[in-house]
Amino acid sequence: MKRAIFMIMLLALCGSCGSRESSATIKRSNLAGQWYSADRTELSRSIDRLLARPAAVFQRRDPLILVLPHAGYAYSGGIAAAGYRALGTVGKPAVTTDLVVILGPSHYSAFSGCALIDADYYETPLGRVRLERGVAERLGKNALFRHNPSMYEREHSIEIHLPFLQRIFGSAIERDISVLPVLVGELDDREAARAAGAIAAAVAGKHPLFIISSDFTHYGPRFGYMPFKNETASGTAQKLKKVDRDAIEFILKRDIAGFSSYVERTGITICGRNPIKIAMALPIEGPGAEIIAYDTSGAITGDYENSVSYASIIFYGRLAGSAGAAAPDTFALAEQDRLFLLRAARDNIRSWLEKKRGIRFFPTDVPKTCLEKRGVFVTLKKKGALRGCIGYIVGTMPLIQGVLDASYNAAFRDPRFGPLGRDELKEIAIEISVLTAPVPVRSVKEIQTGRDGLIVERGRYRGLLLPQVAVEQGWGPERFLDETCLKAGLPAGAWKDGITTVSRFQAIVFGEEAK
């Protein structure tokens, strides 16, 4: 079972793995000096002036999604700032988040699906913004998402928002809060819904905030869109406002089909229409929405021959399954299901030893719970000593398939040991750990040894220790954290540095009697 996916498996002690690259990868600004000032002080002042303008009155104070423009600050900065003030003022955030997801359109490259960037930080004149690796890796396993950093080389729709976030959240945007940039290409309504579902699943356990980067109508000969002609400036302004507001009404109602039909029928040039469709498809608990501000470049310059419209829209509520709305994980395995998985793991290893191929099941022959997508590790022990352990943190495949893959790789592909010999199988005891979805750790007090396993991440470094390891070794929470850092290739105590992220998970652990 030589699978490419093996390359992204994680080893545990039950193991861990982590890249040994010594330096972080940084995406340098391609807007500094063009779209905004390259001088740190001047850029800070320009953002601060925008945020200091009188704030709109918001109906609620639980923003989840902001639809914001991405033109130069002289044009759309005031409209963007009107939305950003829902998040707070300079150095005084009014919301709690650990992940900002920015979805923007691609202006320079045509592609289908979504493009992810492969970097540790984005850098602007205001400093670095930490990029989210873990969620990006999970999304990268979905066919709609691909790591494609080249798409970001000239793009402005993501980066234009970063200075606002840096001024509001301060150093936390480099230390405690990560940013997930997603460039969105062509998507139909069904694909947009699938992308929204994939994002919601990938950010489970976090407190996400979404920024949807989009301008609205691009009007005039420069943009090839002139649905009305021979109008006065005032007449053009009124008609632009109507065509934009009609589109916004569909957005506020989260009517994807109506919005798509309107875009097709009118030809309205909304550059971020596909990121907007993903936002409308996100599963939101207690939803609500309102438009905060609207303007056009024509109103700012006095020239309506070519004009771009800008809107600031806020969606309220909580993402279903996020940390703020997460329901307890009630997944359970009956005794017969556990025995089924243990037999499958052993029979699979035996089949590879004797027939050079693994076993397979028809779905109708598999217990329903064993078809759920779950993270899983398979551990092999010989006379009580570790003989192999490999698995998956995130459930990207049915549990039975994860057990078959992990059992093969634990027996024959764990680089810490040689391949299992035929005569060894009778001496091996198999243990299976079925994982819950990881959730962020914000305090050592949240960790309960014997219940929680740990994942430590910083840049390309990642380490995992299963819950039973702390019990077997007699570690308390802080020692458990230190050892997980060491497994990731980081110094003990790295979990205290404000850069390293820690997640915890639980596991249903069961196995054969020791041999």
Characteristic terms for this protein:
22 strands; disordered N terminus; nine-stranded mixed sheet; alpha+beta
Describe the protein in words.
The chain has 515 residues and is of the alpha+beta class. The chain is 30% helix and 24% strand. It contains 14 helices and 22 strands. The strands form four sheets. Strands 3, 6, 7, 10, 11, 12, 13, 14 and 15 form a nine-stranded mixed β-sheet that branches. Strands 1, 16, 17, 18, 19, 20, 21 and 22 form an eight-stranded antiparallel β-sheet that branches. Strand 20 and strand 21 (461-465) form a beta hairpin. Helix 1 (40-51) packs across helix 2 and helix 6 crosses helix 9. The chain is elongated and about 90 Å long. The relative contact order is 0.14. The model is unreliable at 1-22 (pLDDT under 50).
**Fraction in helix:** 25-40%
Class of secondary structure makeup: alpha+beta
Q: What is the number of helical segments per DSSP (H or I, 4+ residues)? A: 14
- Globally, the shape reads elongated
Strand content: 15-25%
Distance between the termini: 27 Å
Cα Rg: 26 Å
The biggest sheet, with number of strands, parallel, antiparallel or mixed sense and barrel status, is: 9 strands, mixed
Number of strands: 22
Mean pLDDT, to the nearest integer, reads 89
Low-confidence stretches: 1-22
